[in-house]
Design goal:
Elements lengths: L2 E4 L14 E4 L2 E7 L14 H18 L7 E8 L5 H11 L6 E6 L9 E8 L5
Parallel strand pairs: 4-5
Antiparallel strand pairs: 1-2, 2-3, 3-6, 4-6
Helix pairs in contact: 1-2
Length: 130
């Protein structure tokens, strides 16, 4: 099956061998997204609200580069460092998915960058393409 790599303009170098997104058979897989700047530094250290917004804006950029919208996201995998941030994360998250919500799961775990409080990976259905 053919696949298309999705890399939004201005994307920094990834921390490991992966790309921001891969589109195959109309399904977009967005890699785990941390609150990183173009130099792979964690932004908004200590602020779960701002980090969540940054992560979702980054995901939005990948989805839009692939030709979709946030409404096309059908599943989110959410990883958070501390359950104490759960309410703040959900408040921001709800603003990005105001209508029908995607399916999701949320787990607490250690993240690859200790200053990161959240990581989200997404799946979006964009229709048949790539």
């Amino acid at each position: 099956m053919p696949k298309t790599v999705v890399i939004p303009p201005g994307t920094g170098k990834p921390l490991a061998p992966y790309v921001p997104g891969t589109l195959a058979d109309g399904i977009l897989y967005v890699s785990g997204t941390l609150p990183l700047d173009a130099e792979a530094n964690v932004v908004h250290v200590g602020d779960a609200t701002a980090q969540t917004r940054h992560v979702l804006e980054t995901i939005k950029g990948v989805v839009e580069t692939a030709g979709g919208t946030m409404d096309d996201i059908t599943f989110n995998h959410i990883f958070l460092k501390d359950w104490a941030d759960y309410a703040a994360i959900n408040a921001v998250y709800a603003g990005y998915f105001p209508g029908e919500k995607p399916a999701r799961y949320c787990i607490q775990c250690g993240l690859v960058k200790p200053e990161a409080l959240i990581e989200i990976a997404s799946v979006a259905h964009l229709g048949k393409s790539g």
